[in-house]
Amino acid sequence: MRNLFFLVTLFFFGFQHVSAQDFIVKNDDDVIRGTIKGTDYFSVLIKANDETDVILPAKDIKNFFWNGNTYLSKGFATGKNLEYRFVKVLEMGKVNLYAFGGETLMPVQKQKRVRFSPSVGIGTGTGGYGSGMGLGGGISIGGGRNYDNRPAGAPIVRYFIEKPGAGPLQEIPIKAITDDTRKAEVRTILLQKLGDNPNLKAEVEANTALNSKEVTEMVRKYNQN
After folding, report:
1. Are strands 31-39 and 43-48 parallel, antiparallel or unpaired?
2. Other CB atoms closer than 10 Å to residue 109's CB: what's the count?
3. Distance linking the first and last C-alpha atoms of the chain
4. Is 118 helix (H, G, I), strand (E, B) or coil?
5. What is the pTM of this model?
6. d(C-alpha 158, C-alpha 96), whole Å
7. How far apart are CA 39 and CA 61, in angstroms?
8. For the segment 119-178, what is each residue's pLDDT rounded down to a tens digit?
9. Could you read off the pLDDT of 75-84 as tens digits, one per residue?
10. Quick check: 72 and 5 in contact, CB under 8 A?
11. Looking at per-residue confidence, does 199 or 120 come out higher?
12. Which is more confident, 144 or 21?
């Protein structure tokens, strides 16, 4: 686990400053460099440097770097099964904050040159989400990739937060404008994760917006201390 954290931190804070080129790190540590064309959070499509289009499922990937962002592969519970899906890293450290969805997805257009294609093409929707660490178990949310039949690229964003060693990945119901009815829940979750920092505890208790931007900034402050 410590090695995984080190590698992810390296990609998150290091490679984005070294090279703007997209890349994918497979489970066997093989690196594919090229131009990533899109993801449906179950698979990722990359045009490799040898000009070949390659689709790789999340179960075969550790992480990938695209448009200045790092994405991790995590295990999600769907009933009795475990599916691997991608999560976008917003903040990583003592507390991790992730986002699902909201990207503009690009569909596959040149199937003849694709080495491997999953049953559902890139850009088919964001689907329902669950959580887990790829080691079994986890909570399930929603019921499949097209649970509300939204088009590819629809701005559905769901956020998850975790404090390693202090409980499982947990959905936090924040938005660009967080619903008033969910703010008490958001505040409770943040106090559980950040409340051991007196300054941030006071900030959480005083904050009336508790939107995605401000929560991300709070997590960033916590990780910097």
Report:
1. antiparallel
2. 13
3. 22
4. coil
5. 0.70
6. 14
7. 13
8. 333 333 333 333 433 333 333 333 344 433 344 444 578 999 999 988 888 899 999 999
9. 877 778 888 8
10. no
11. 199
12. 21
| Contact status, residue 76 vs residue 130, Cβ threshold 8 Å | yes
Residue 217 in tokens = 């900034």
The DSSP element (H or E) to which 90 belongs, if any, is strand 81-91
* Average pLDDT score, the chain: 76
Task: Provide the H-helix boundaries in 59-157.
Answer: none
3-class DSSP assignment, residue 56: strand
What is the per-residue burial (b if ≥16 Cβ within 10 Å, else e) of 34-45? Answer: bebbbbbbbbbb
> Which residue is it, tokens 């009933």?
79
With the C-alpha atoms ordered 37, 154, 67, 169, is the resulting torsion angle positive or negative? negative
Looking at residue 86, its amino acid is F
| Pair of tokens at residue 116 | 């491997």
| Local structure of 200: helix, strand or coil | helix
Distance CA 212, CA 205 (A): 16
In three-state secondary structure terms, 66 is strand
Contact of 131 with 77, CB cutoff 8 Å: yes
Question: Which residue carries 């300054």 as its tokens?
Answer: 199
* Inter-residue contact 43 to 56 (CB < 8 Å): yes
Q: From edge to edge, which strands make up the β-sheet containing 31-39?
A: 53-57, 43-48, 31-39, 22-26, 61-66, 69-78, 81-91, 96-100, 158-162, 170-171
